[in-house]
């Protein structure tokens, strides 16, 4: 039998992120905006601002390729 130990902080962090995404989806709906379009526009702007360089986000490295 395999046992996986997950920290409470990890579970709560995931729940909090999920809650934030849900709130943003509700806000988009109430303002008659398409949530997917909003996310896509944000990502386009974010990718442009990264200028193709490495950025450290937490413990992960991300590289954007054009």
Task: Please provide a written account of the structure.
The longest helix has 23 residues. This protein has one domain. It contains 2 helices and 2 strands. Helix content is 59%, strand content 9%. It has 66 residues and is mostly helical. Strands 1-2 form a two-stranded antiparallel sheet. The C terminus is likely disordered.
Number of DSSP-assigned strands: 2
- How much helicity do the residues have? 55-70%
H and E string: HHEE
The main pleated sheet reads as: 2 strands, antiparallel
Globally, the shape reads flat
- The main sheet orders its strands as 1-2
List the SSEs and their pairings.
Layout: H1 8-30, H2 35-50, E1 55-57, E2 60-62
List keywords for this structure.
mainly alpha, single chain, 2 strands
Provide a compact summary of the structure.
By secondary structure, this protein is mostly helical.
